[in-house]
Design goal:
Helices cover about 5% and strands about 45% of the residues. The chain has about 400 residues and is mostly beta strands. It has one domain (about 5-85, about 95-255, about 265-400): Methylamine Dehydrogenase, Chain H (7 Propeller), CATH 2.130.10.10. A hairpin with a 2-residue loop joins strand 11 (about 120-125) and strand 12. It holds the Pfam family WD40.
């Protein structure tokens, strides 16, 4: 049965499934006012919190670090309180006092266009940050920092511009564009950073030890419409992208880079000069959020619908929508193409899914009550879709088939 998490008072703008060695299913949510909550999905209550100074744009897990990008032009990095662990028993406490997350690092980041940022673990305490340039949202900055040293932040590359290189790879008679446009999304996948642009291009890049930038993949799948979301397709083993059209892009950089002999610091190197355009057609469009796992594709649209497909995108399995005061499921795979002006449908502001987990691990857990173990088994045996809405609610529903 679906249930609803209620604590946020404004739009839930980001959701993150927290993965750890603990079995407890844990959700992290951020809202329009800057509140971050950490939820126990078994008792459906938050147990950690933090209040930032502006809308939460994105949440990312990097090892045991929580990375939050906020609309106040600040990227914040948190750990969980040392005094409270993510063990199963103590998160069923009835205390109304939520422990506060530990803020351990802050970095100023340009958030003028609502693009997210991506933090990449390099080794030990060293991390790399990929984000929009501080002044020009069409170019990219790369930073490195030591999480243990507050003053360690240094910029490795400034205002990386890819248009000149990519424009030479396309047929000008087919694609006419004078810029890639603003950066819309960053996504880390298999040690590469995938970047979605306003022009519809998706580019995969990496930084070598000599600070030369390798472009290992270029796609024009959504040209000329903007990239709205990037997400990892766990079964498909590639990156998925969405736009305003009725197609999802499929992206996979080649595993091996070309061997380069004479590169200078600051070079941009094209490792694969082919421009790809692999797509899956969907019977819906204006897809703002994508998830792919457990042999299904889940999308949320500007129309207020969350739609579940098989991995071909051809067969619609379920359509979920939230009307004010209820959460109906429309089994008609065609639904309504758009929202009328007087629609009572609640707009979607974020969406994630949680895949099934190994129930054998749950069965072997000791030192918990049988009631908690039954809840864990029931939760672990399902694929879940979690949708954040403009009214502050988070609807949680099983979508396994």
């Amino acid at each position: 049965m679906p249930f609803t998490l209620r604590h946020h008072k404004v739009a839930v703008t980001s959701l993150l499934n927290w993965c750890s060695e603990d079995i407890l299913p844990t959700l992290i949510s951020g809202d329009e006012d800057g509140t971050i909550l950490v939820w126990n999905l078994l008792n459906r209550k938050p147990f950690y919190r933090y209040k930032c100074n502006g809308q939460i744009i994105s949440l990312q897990q990097v090892n045991d670090l929580l990375v939050a990008l906020c609309k106040d032009h600040t990227l914040r990095i948190f750990t969980f309180p040392l005094s409270v662990t993510l063990s199963i028993n103590n998160t069923f406490s009835t205390s109304h006092n939520l422990a506060e997350l530990n803020l351990i690092y802050e970095i100023p980041v340009n958030t003028l266009n609502f693009a997210n940022a991506a933090v990449q673990h390099i080794n030990g305490d060293i991390y790399m940050l990929w984000c929009c340039n501080t002044q020009d949202s069409e170019t990219i900055d790369v930073y490195q920092f030591n999480i243990q040293e507050k003053t360690s932040l240094r910029r490795l590359r400034k205002a990386i511009a890819l248009y000149e290189h990519i424009s030479k790879m396309v047929d000008p008679s087919v694609m006419k564009f004078d810029k890639l446009g603003t950066v819309m999304k960053f996504l880390l996948y298999e040690d590469r950073i995938y970047i979605g642009f306003e022009s519809g291009f998706v580019v995969a890049v990496s930084l070598s030890d000599d600070l030369s930038l390798h472009v290992s993949y270029v796609s024009s799948a959504h040209y000329p419409e903007p990239v709205l979301d990037l997400s990892v397709g766990h079964d498909l083993k590639m990156v998925l992208s969405s736009s305003t059209t009725s197609s999802l892009g499929l992206h996979k950089a080649k595993s091996k880079l070309k061997h380069q002999h004479d590169t200078a610091e600051g070079d941009i190197i094209i490792d694969d000069s082919e421009v790809y355009s692999n797509l899956i057609k969907l019977p819906t469009k204006k897809v703002a959020h994508i998830q792919q796992m457990d042999n299904i594709i889940v999308v949320s649209t500007w129309y207020g619908t969350t739609e579940i497909f098989d991995t071909t995108g051809r067969d619609t399995l379920t359509i979920i929508r939230k009307e004010r005061g209820q959460v109906p499921v429309d089994d008609n795979p065609y639904g309504n193409a758009s929202l009328p002006k007087d629609s009572t449908r609640v707009k979607i502001s974020s969406m994630i899914c949680i895949s099934k987990t190994n129930t054998n691990e749950v069965s072997s857990i000791k030192d918990v009550t049988e009631g908690i173990k039954r809840r864990l088994l029931r939760f672990s045996n399902q694929t879940w879709c979690l949708v954040g809405y403009e009214d502050g609610s988070i609807v949680v529903k099983e979508i396994g088939h």
